[in-house]
Design brief:
The protein is of the alpha/beta class. The protein contains 13 helices and eight strands. Helix 4 links the parallel strand 3 (77-81) and strand 4 (98-104).
């Protein structure tokens, strides 16, 4: 399939965020088939795994193998989540193009999620950046600010602390940092305000919007972020995912619905909707007991729908 220009980047996080949040363990071969199907649909950035101990997340025990397979797909940016330096070393050794770190703005969530204080995580970013600079300078480091809009464990997360965390991780050596609505607390006005502040604080190092649909505001929040100049969005096929250490934080934004919204608005994603719907099949085959969501795949596209992204033959 020919290469296409895009207005926004849709970063698929289902193979990591989605699969680590459910009880089912997808067989490695099925993960490969799912990633291949996403790639055929035009997805060009996929978070394929977490590099964490298998005893903590058995769903991610095959991280090395999944990265190796994903790297065979030309032009795909292969990402993995790492909680610490050891995880980053393993991910870089496996050959990822980008590592993402969950750095929480909530003190309570930081301890629950990575067993470190916020200050200790900033130090961890420094260590990872130093290792990267010495051993693999081509690797990108993204530090996502988790619980940026509120926390199920501590409640309110002051906006000043969110911006402080973002500034600290950039100073520590991260290439970019985005905002994550880990708990699905955000509303569009809050999204606009905080992304505006993020951009004012760190300029073009402001990264992706990682938003959840827990309370039904996922797409509205993505649109609000886009209107503030955000052009990179994390989403999960079928809406799989959440955070095992944030009670009730189910439901990433559904990739299929997000792509449809942008394409219907004339905003190019580079993703072929019908092929994206096809990619739900290997996902469902791999986790047959899980419910996968999505309004557009079930309803279909409207009559006369014309996608913004134009595909050649």
């Amino acid at each position: 399939m020919n290469s296409v220009s895009t207005d926004v980047l849709i970063s698929e996080v289902g193979p990591r965020d989605g699969l680590q949040s459910i009880k089912s363990i997808m067989p490695t071969k099925q993960k490969h088939a799912w990633i291949d199907a996403l790639y055929r649909a035009g997805v060009r950035e996929i978070e394929v795994a977490s590099f964490v101990p298998a005893k903590l997340l058995p769903q991610m025990a095959d991280a090395d193998e999944v990265v190796r397979h994903a790297k065979t797909l030309p032009g795909l940016t292969v990402m993995a989540l790492v909680p610490n330096l050891r995880g980053a070393q393993a991910a870089i050794e496996a050959g990822v193009h980008k590592v993402t770190l969950p750095v929480s703005a909530s003190a309570a969530h930081s301890l629950a999620n990575v067993r470190k204080t916020r200050e200790e995580m900033i130090e961890e970013v420094k260590k990872i950046a130093q290792y990267r600079n010495e051993c693999a300078p081509q690797i990108k480091i993204e530090a996502g600010i988790a619980t940026a809009f509120g926390c199920t464990l501590q409640g309110l997360v002051p906006e000043d602390e969110v911006i402080w965390m973002a500034e600290q991780v950039i100073e520590a050596g991260a290439d970019e940092t985005g905002l994550s609505d880990t708990t699905g607390y955000a509303n569009p006005a809050q999204i606009k305000r905080l992304f505006r502040r993020l951009k004012a604080a760190i300029g073009n190092k402001a990264g992706a919007a990682h938003l959840h649909n827990t309370r039904g505001l996922g797409l509205a929040n993505c649109l609000a972020a886009y209107e503030e100049g955000v052009t990179s969005f994390d989403s999960s096929m079928g809406g799989l995912g959440g955070c095992p250490y944030a009670p009730g934080a189910s439901g990433n934004v559904v990739t299929e619905d997000l792509v449809f919204m942008f394409e219907a608005m004339g905003i190019k994603t580079g993703i072929h909707l019908e092929l994206l719907f096809e990619a739900r099949k290997p996902l469902q085959l791999g986790v047959p007991t899980e419910i996968i969501y999505g309004m557009v795949p079930e309803a279909g596209v409207p009559k006369g729908f014309a996608a913004a992204t134009q595909w050649g033959t």
